[in-house]
Write a structure and sequence with these properties.
Strand content: 25-35%
Number of strands: 16
Strand order of the largest sheet: 1-2-3-4-5-12-6-11-10-9-8-7
Distance between the termini: 31 Å
Largest sheet: 12 strands, mixed
Structural class: alpha+beta
Order of helices and strands: EHHHEEEHEHEHEHHEEEHEHEHEEEEHH
């Protein structure tokens, strides 16, 4: 006999039991893991009340679990509410009982009742397409080798002349004196997803990452968040992007990775230009998997995101139909004011929910727009693809 329940730190559910279950299931398939250390933003004892734990029990013992971490994207005064699904786990002896299907429905139902605009998760794409999720957004990963940056420095010595003055301090506590400056720099991103300085710091600690304050003349000029091996930069921010080349050169000299990968979203236009000059090559990947619950809010937010990242977008309108819910939405811009609303007008293009996410937010757009007679060619120039990107540090 199974029962569904929700566990939070406010209830009598033992969160240690939840963590023990998740650690056991994931360790059986992915090697040893300790979620409290891996995701402190959600599983430190003092933050156990943040995620919602959706559980199925048999005879009082957990057999399946989905956790939902609440989030809010902010762009100026605009915001979107979302839930990030993670720690998806089913006991090996309880599989094929439909528990995951039931928990996914319960989690989505709760998010809809809470007014969430969309849901995120990561994992097997074709597994989660069954639940209405599709790959969304784009990120660039620039790969920089020692030889490449050495040659770059030799030919751009004047621009990298500050290298010897730059050094890195490991940030091991939210009390580190550089964290205030780091958090201020984070808040200058086009879109943010962390509510306060503590959450900002704990996000940087996720996935056993390293965080460094970038220092010059005893002043914090930025930060870098990297893998434990210091060969992949998840996230960075500098007071002055003109120093980016010198910072990366100094970092590779000090940490000595043979090759450094640097990740940025498609909205980070200035950073992309600099990293393209530095790198040997780059790859273009999708960001996370998304299910849209509120099309008006999400499409409007993304179009505003594009406008802020790239400057003024041209005036115009375009009607998109969502086949699954038989609803059309008019996207319009007039005098820099973005509007998205339901309309009875005929759609310029109609997509299923999955097609809409894949086509309008990923590089697949460039394939579709090149097709002969593509209705996307009627869209106002420069509107698509729409931006979406969250750093690994915001994943759950």
């Amino acid at each position: 006999m199974s029962e569904y329940c929700i566990g939070t730190a406010k209830d009598t559910i033992d969160t240690e039991e939840i963590l023990d279950f998740a650690n056991m299931v994931f360790s059986m398939s992915s090697g040893s893991i300790d979620f409290r250390r891996t995701l402190p933003k959600a599983y430190l004892a003092k933050r156990a009340m943040v995620p919602t734990h959706h559980l199925i029990k048999e005879e009082g013992r957990i057999k399946a679990l989905i956790d939902v971490y609440p989030g809010e994207l902010r762009l100026d005064k605009e915001s979107l509410s979302y839930g990030y699904i993670g720690t998806v786990s089913v006991h090996p002896r309880a599989r094929s009982k439909g528990y995951m299907i039931e928990l996914m429905k319960k989690a989505e139902g709760q998010l809809r009742r809470d007014g969430a605009d969309f849901i995120l998760l990561d994992g097997n794409r074709h597994r989660y397409q069954h639940y209405g999720f599709e790959k969304a957004g784009m990120k660039y990963c620039f790969n920089i080798t020692r030889d490449s940056i050495r040659h770059f420095v030799n030919s751009h010595n004047r621009e990298c002349g500050q290298k010897d003055k730059i050094y890195f301090e490991f940030v091991d506590s939210v009390e580190h004196e550089a964290v205030d400056i780091m958090y201020d720099l984070y808040q200058k991103r086009h879109v943010t997803a962390r509510h306060d300085k503590e959450e900002f710091y704990l996000c940087l600690c996720g996935w056993e990452a390293n965080t460094y304050a970038v220092m010059m003349d005893d002043e914090c000029i930025g930060y870098m968040n990297t893998t434990a091996e210091d060969d992949n930069v998840y996230e960075f921010a500098l007071k002055d992007n003109s120093q980016l080349s010198a910072v990366i050169w100094a970092f590779m000299q000090e940490m000595e990775p043979h090759e450094l990968a640097v990740n940025v979203g498609m909205d980070e236009v200035e950073e992309i230009s600099i990293l393209d000059e530095l790198s040997d090559y780059y790859t273009l990947n999708m960001s996370h998997q998304m299910k849209i619950l509120n099309y008006e809010s999400v499409l409007r937010f993304m179009l505003m995101w594009k406008q802020q990242a790239e400057g003024e977008l041209c005036d115009g309108s375009y009607v998109i139909g969502v086949e699954d819910i038989q609803t059309n939405y008019r996207l319009s811009i007039k005098n820099e004011v973005v509007c998205v609303e339901q309309t009875a007008d005929e759609a310029d293009v109609v997509y299923s929910a999955l097609e809409l996410i894949r086509t309008l937010t990923t590089s697949y757009y460039f394939h579709e727009v090149r097709k002969k007679g593509s209705p996307l060619r009627k869209a106002p120039q420069g509107w698509f693809p729409l931006p979406f990107y969250l750093p690994v540090t915001d994943a759950f």
